[in-house]
Amino acid sequence: MGKLMTQDKTIVVPGETLAEGMDYLPGNGTYRLGDKILAGKVGLICVEGRALKLIPLSGAYAPKRNDVIIAKVIDVAISGWRFDTNSAYSAMLSVKDATSEYIARGSNLTQYFDLGDYVTTKITNVTSQKLVDLTTKGPGLNKLRGGRVIKVNAYKVPRIIGKQGSMVSLIKNATGCKIIVGQNGLIWINGEPESEIIVVEAIKMIQGNSHIRGLTDMVKEFLEKKGCKTDAPAEAGATEKPSEKKFVKGESQ
Amino acid sequence: MNNNSKMNNDSKNHLIKSLEKGIRFDGRKLTDYRKVVVETGVSKNAEGSARVKFGDTEVVAGVKMMMEKPYPDTPEQGVIMVNAEFLPMASPEFESGPPGIDSIELSRVVDRGIRESKAIDLKKLCLKKGEKVWMVSIDICTINADGNLLDASALAALAALQNARFPEYVDDEVNYKKHTDEKLPMDKLPLPVTIHKIGNFFIVDPSREEEHGVEARLTITSTEKGIICALQKGGATLTNDEVAQMLELALEKSTELRKYF
């Protein structure tokens, strides 16, 4: 009979034994060694029936299929672009996945995406060798003009977006800024200089207090103190759980 | 610098739009420094050392004194040397290997400020003409690069020099284990201030992000009395008027930085 060595919602460190025996199954962020299941990252453990899942608290972003990310062009190749994804792996966008427009062979690709441009893209595939493919075909996927990009911990992104995008729309409505949150921890902000600073502060606050209940109210209070109107109905934040999985991917403007 | 470190036009226009309103991306005004922290005596074995932080930018400077033979063309003068290295740990943009253009420029600008202002009386570093002089070597290590490494490094170098004490020297032998109370013969404080130009705006202490959008920069080293002792320009061209404005701003800012000593 397998034995659970930890409890639901406890914080574990890499290498910590989570369960013994074959009755439990290793999920995301955990792995099996012999007949034990060990944690592979720092995070909260989630026991769902027989499966053990780990919600990471920190670490670098790992590209995942169907994630909408904000990526930066680092190279223009013959038939596509190479992007920095804020992770250990760069990603490739080929011309045929970039636009449905006809592009003649040998034409100058920098007129679409140039070096240093930020683009919202979706990851179409991640191979076992960690080659990442991207697409910019789809709603809300395009080059980001103007604005600026800040970096946050990729694992705090669900909290920044909030339940059904509640948190990010709260900030958007209050400050009047356009915000796009990429799953890789890059956030694009465009608005008036003063409001942008408030947005950055609010996001830093969410990042630092992501474990606290009632975060939405806290952010609301903060925004009101900064002189923003927060009349738009926002979902109550008190019911948010850290195990919440259903978040809007790559909230669009 | 590689291509990845240049800001694209869209982002730059956005930055300029923000500067027009007198606000920078982190909420500072155009000519505000980030929080400056100066700590001295961070290394026990160095003759003098200092750690300087400008926001997230962090630099450690150390001073080592050796007894050496002087250069033949200056037999009665001591030697100062500045060496800087952009360590890969400080930024993903830095690579290991031989020093690059940026780190050589940095060490030369720091060196020039100290040398040309004649802040250290090199003749007083001579013990025996043509045979024995003190060699003061200043090493600058970048711990974290988040913009404005040059000003931070120079500040650290000066703080380390002020913090330095001569090691004991008896019977032709330097005893590094014991330090005397004697300080370096330093009577001036040549502080550099780098003014950066973005669009038509002048800023000081840029963050890494802002640095990528900088068109031109001018490093102005001045002493307490407002005497300009060294200049270093980088980037695009500057008009006479612009240089005059930059000089004025630099002198004003250097008095602000001086209070950390």
Summarize the structure in words.
The complex is a heterodimer of chains A (253) and B (261). With 253 residues, chain A is of the alpha+beta class. Chain A folds into 3 domains: 3-56, RNA polymerase II/Efflux pump adaptor protein, barrel-sandwich hybrid domain (OB fold (Dihydrolipoamide Acetyltransferase, E2P), Beta Barrel), CATH 2.40.50.100; 68-135, Beta Barrel (OB fold (Dihydrolipoamide Acetyltransferase, E2P)); 148-239, Ribosomal Protein S8, Chain: A, domain 1 (2-Layer Sandwich). Chain A has 5 helices and 16 strands. Chain A has helices spanning 95-98, 157-161, 166-175, 193-208, 215-225, and strands at 3-4, 11-12, 17-20, 25-26, 30-33, 36-39, 43-48, 51-56, 68-76, 80-84, 91-94, 118-126, 132-135, 148-151, 178-181, 186-190. In chain A, strand 15 and strand 16 (186-190) form a beta hairpin. The two termini of chain B are 33 Å apart. The A-B interface holds A 72, 74, 84, 114-118, 144-149, 190, 192-194, 196-197, 200 and B 3-4, 6-8, 10-11, 13-15, 17-18, 21, 23, 25-27, 209.
List the defining traits of the structure above.
heterodimer; A: 253 residues; alpha+beta; OB fold (Dihydrolipoamide Acetyltransferase, E2P); Ribosomal Protein S8, Chain: A, domain 1; 5-stranded mixed barrel; 4-stranded antiparallel β-sheet; 5 helices; 16 strands; 29% strand; flat; disordered C terminus; B: 261 residues; Ribosomal Protein S5, domain 2; 6-stranded mixed β-sheet; 25% helix
